[in-house]
Structures are given as C-alpha cells and as structure tokens.
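Quick start: what a row looks like.
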Amino acid sequence: MKRLFIGISMLVLLVSCGGGDDGPSIPEAAELVFPDENSECTTGVSVSENLSQVTFRWMASANTSSYTLNVVNLETNVPQTISTAATSASLSIAKGTPFAWSVSSTNNQSDQVVSSETWLFYNAGSQTTYAPFPAQAVSPISGSTVLKDIANEVTLEWLGADVEGDIVSFEVFFSDQNPPTTSLGEVETATTEFNVSVTSGITYYWKIITTDEEGNTSDSGVFEFKVN
C-alpha cells in the first residue's frame, strides 16, 4: 500500500509539472490578400478630391489576438496604422500614389510581434500610366554597419517593381555626401545589384532612380550605411 501511495504521488507530481514549460504561443505572420502585390488598386471609395478609402484584407494567422495594419506613402514616407482583431481594415489614402503595406501579428500572451511580407501597390487616381515603384533597399540595410570584402567593395542590392511591368533601367547614385549626386551609371532591369568601392570608417549614401518605357521615373530616396 505504501509503494502504491508513493507511485500515485509521483504521478500526480509529474502531471502537475508537465506542460508548463512551453511558454506563450508565438503569433504567426499573416498572409496578405488585398491590395495585390505590385498592382493598381481601383476599388477605393472616393471620399474627397485627393483621398479614397481602401479596404485592406489578409488571412487569419495562428496564435494571434490582434493585428496592426501598416500603410506607408512611398512619396512622403508617412505611415498610417490601425489596430484590429479582424482580418480587414479600411484607411483613407491619397489617390494616384504608391504605397507599401504590411500587417503585424500580436498575441496577448507573448511580447513578440511578427510581421507579414510587405507589398507595394498604387492607389488609383486620374492618371492612365504610373511611374515605377520607388526601389527598395535590400542590402546593405539603411542605417547598418557593414564589412567590405577582400576587394574593398560592398554590394548594393535593391528591389524594383512596376504596375505595368515596363521598367527599362535603374540608375545608381553613390557618394560619401548626402544626398549622393554622383551617378555610377545605369543598369538593365535584369540587374538589381552593383559593386562599389569603399573605405573603412566612412559613411556612404546611395539611391536608385527607376525609369520605365514611358519615361516615368521614381526616386528611391537616400539609403545609408557605414563601413567597419
């Protein structure tokens, strides 16, 4: 009887201790649905001469109690955000303007915030042709400190996109002065990286001018990095 009592006690202890070490569930990234990536959004409801209300949608993500919609005007870099427990939210945004949008997932039981992919789109306006989306820096990350390679070079890498898919060139500007005014030349659309010579201890600035077949251009804005 004594051995039975000890066995039962140990079993109760194991059960009571088990399952408590997993910690809170980490939210998963939401999958974006609409507006489509690299598209023209024509479903906005006009609210004024310059604004239309667009409804953003995404798929529900696991272990998520709330979402934060992040929408950035790519011409001004001004963000708009809204939090919701739903899988859609509406914002009034500028017509005829490029935007980037993403969704952050959070869980009441966890401090971790997980972000979705970032998609680009144009909110429809009166124009019939659109400039390319401003190029997005991939590497180096703006504000970062990087190491040069054995040839004393760093590779600039970016992403380019266009609603009509008619980008013809990227022009690379690079300098240790802000803003960079020295053009290193144009590269074809199949190329989205460029090697530059650098010196340790110097902060460098770069940007990309994207041009399409209609002659429309977009300015990426200035990115910067320091060489260690």
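That is the whole record. The helical segments are 2-17. Residues 1-20 have pLDDT under 50 and may be disordered.
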